[in-house]
Each structure stands twice: as structure tokens, then as C-alpha cells.
Amino acid sequence: MSTTPEAPTGGADAPVSKPNQMFKNCWGCRVISGGGLILSGAYVFMAARRVMRQGGPTSMGTVAQITFAASLAAWGLVVLADPVGKAQRKDNVRTVLK
């Protein structure tokens, strides 16, 4: 019978870690990481375009590379926009059943 409190297990009630909270509030951190992801997506896209521009065949690898580049750029936009926590719950809207 120990009286020491148990460590949180990481459920829904777990507090947000300090580095995660700092990243959400730091505009410069979001610009650097989001911009880096967008630029890396542009680099991967230009590498795929270079193969096609030189007259190489469009293979599944090239299509996968372009898709990966688009996903990197989209991830960068999400980091820049930071949509987490911006949606507000609408408590004032209630439906009345008659």
C-alpha cells in the first residue's frame, strides 16, 4: 500500500508536453520547419521533372516521386497554417425535437 501517486499513462487527460506546446506558439519555429518541408518538396519535384525533361520515360517511380513531393509540400502548409486547436465547439447551437 504505497501512497506515492502514479505516473500519467498518456490518455486523453494527459497534459501536453512543454516542447509540443512551445512549437505551437512559436511562429519562427513553424516558419522554419514548414518552409523547410515546402522547399524539400520543391527539390524532390524538380528532381522528378529533370528526368522527364531529359526525355526519360514516365515510370511509376517518377509518379511516386511527384506524389511524395506534393505530400511534403502539403505537410509544410499544414505546419505553417497550424489548424490544430483553431476549431471552436459550437455549444450555442441546439436542435429542438418537437
From TrEMBL:
Q: Which domain of life is it from?
A: Eukaryota
What keywords would UniProt list here? Membrane, Transmembrane, Transmembrane helix
One short Pfam family name for this protein?
A: DMAC1_Dmo2
Q: Which residues cross the membrane?
A: 27-48, 60-81
Q: Which InterPro entries match?
A: DMAC1-like_dom (IPR028036), DMAC_Protein (IPR053117)
Using the record's annotation, list all stretches that form the Distal membrane-arm assembly complex protein 1-like domain. 25-71
Is Ribonucleoprotein tagged as a keyword? no
**What is the protein's given name?**
Distal membrane-arm assembly complex protein 1
**What is the organism lineage in this UniProt record?**
Eukaryota, Metazoa, Chordata, Craniata, Vertebrata
Name of the coding gene: dmac1
